[in-house]
Amino acid sequence: MPHRIVIASTPHEAYTKAQQRYGIHFRVLSARQIALEGTDETICELLVDVPQPSPSDEVRDIFIQRGIDGAWLDTTVGSDETILHDKEKLTAYLLSSIYENIHESQELEDQKIMMFVGPTGVGKTTNIAKLASRYAREFEQKVVLLNLDRLKKGAKEQLALHANDLNLTHIAIESIGDFVRVLREVEEYDRVLIDSAGFSPFDIEQMMSNIEYILASHQQKMHITLVLSALSKEEDLEDIYQNFSFLDLDALLISKFDETRHIGNVINFLIRHNTTPLSYISIGQTIPNDILCECKRYILDKFVGTL
Ligand SMILES: Nc1nc2c(ncn2[C@@H]2O[C@H](COP(=O)(O)OP(=O)(O)O)[C@@H](O)[C@H]2O)c(=O)[nH]1
Ligand SMILES: [Mg+2]
């Protein structure tokens, strides 16, 4: 175990300094007061014994600093002696565990009616426009955009503008009656993308119970994607997920990966909720390019870039 010297003006200060540097894992071997020549001052010199961190502690610290959940790391690392003593092997093992534990879905190809829910400002409208363009141009599908916009002033215009740019039909829905009628009218489309701007989870649930019968009578299902921002704190991602979870979420879309380097929050969240697959990630404001379906690869590359 390496020895270290800590100097301060009093023994108490020297001890505190040692604690700040080495945490609780050190042992005092000796302490002495040294008189400073030509003055009546003394200083204290502590000789301490500092344990060498094990390779697994070092790797754990790096992942913790990057925001990865400590409890998850501890259960994942386990006690496999073959990797515990080798930093590179352990790092590779943890990275592959992150990769394995995030659930990503295939590109959503057959989901005809898709609604996007989530708080204001996370990127619902922008990403609906990206997807609309992708489905219309790459998959050559017939796409219609619907807007449930009771509350958010201007929301209708924003989606309508995108629809106009993309040369797609846009319909604003103002009541449940409207919605029922429009759902019948959009039968001929391959994709019906719905922006729920201004609807709270409660509003959406009420609306769903009102339209369920019409979906059932057409053997249709409403595929629900929760849109979240990578900039949100982990606790906020969790709260939002809980607020919307009674809707039976089918997928997650996470936006704004281009705006942060710190994605431990998102990784922890995705691992915890890996029953809801991640279908897309958004990496910028540009329509239609800044959306990806190969989410895990991107997330892992980005995380590795910070190691
Ligand atoms: N940098 C960045 N900005 C985004 C991304 N997704 C959406 N935005 C921007 O976030 C803002 C809010 O997006 P908007 O689609 O209106 O959010 P909504 O309220 O959920 O519909 C707009 O300025 C978007 O251009 C993204 O992935 N990266
Ligand atoms: Mg919007």
Secondary-structure topology with pairs:
Layout: E1 3-8, H1 11-22, E2 27-35, E3 42-49, H2 55-65, H3 70-77, H4 81-84, H5 87-101, E4 113-117, H6 124-138, E5 143-148, H7 155-166, E6 169-173, H8 176-185, E7 191-195, H9 201-217, E8 222-229, H10 234-245, E9 251-255, H11 264-272, E10 278-282, E11 291-292, H12 295-304
Parallel strand pairs: 4-7, 4-8, 5-6, 5-7, 8-9, 9-10
Antiparallel strand pairs: 1-3, 2-3, 10-11
Helix pairs in contact: 2-3, 6-7, 8-9
The structure holds guanosine-5'-diphosphate and magnesium ion.
Guanosine-5'-diphosphate binds next to α6.
Brief summary of the model shown:
The protein has 307 residues and is α/β, with parallel strands linked by helices. It has helices at 11-22, 55-65, 70-77, 81-84, 87-101, 124-138, 155-166, 176-185, 201-217, 234-245, 264-272, 295-304; strands at 3-8, 27-35, 42-49, 113-117, 143-148, 169-173, 191-195, 222-229, 251-255, 278-282, 291-292.
